[in-house]
Design brief:
The protein is mostly helical and 58 residues long. It has one domain. The two termini are 18 Å apart.
Length: 58
């Protein structure tokens, strides 16, 4: 559950940058959003692996 909480925090943390990019056209904010999305991808994969391991352990 710790990783899921980190995922939610990461999404909340990039909300302002996403707004700056999509509504104001700020290119640097777009770069930060892309990096955060890559981090989200890795974290999501870690969560998937963890869930699969727990499911198969039963």
């Amino acid at each position: 559950m710790e990783k899921f909480s980190k995922l939610k925090e990461l999404i909340a943390g990039i909300e302002a940058d996403a707004d700056k990019f999509y509504n104001s056209g700020n290119g640097a904010a777009g770069t930060r959003v892309r990096k955060a999305m890559q981090d989200l991808k890795g974290l999501a994969q870690d969560i998937r692996t963890e869930v699969t391991e727990k499911k198969n352990a039963k």
